């Protein structure tokens, strides 16, 4: 899933380590999230949105199925 974590982290002037500490996850988790290799749990997605003071859908770009017809 695409996301804006790296962009938001830059806006909030946070390192990967600092964000990981706030979310109580490893730096490797942040790296995997930023590269789109890992889809977070709903709980983690919520925590990320709270750190950046926005909605989950402002952080994560859902690429769902297109509607038919």
Automatic annotation (TrEMBL):
Listed SMART domains: HTH_XRE
Keyword Magnesium recorded: no
Entry-linked CDD domains: HTH_XRE
Keywords, sorted A to Z: DNA-binding
GO molecular function: DNA binding
Domain HTH cro/C1-type residue range list: 5-59
PROSITE patterns per UniProt: HTH_CROC1
Protein name from the UniProt record: Transcriptional regulator
Source organism (scientific name): Lysinibacillus antri
């Amino acid at each position: 899933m695409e996301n804006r974590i790296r962009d938001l982290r830059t806006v909030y002037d946070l390192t990967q380590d600092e964000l990981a500490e706030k979310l109580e996850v490893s730096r490797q988790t942040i790296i995997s999230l930023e590269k789109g290799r890992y889809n977070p749990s709903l709980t983690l997605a919520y925590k990320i949105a709270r750190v950046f003071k926005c909605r989950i859908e402002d952080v994560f770009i859902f690429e769902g199925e297109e509607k038919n017809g």
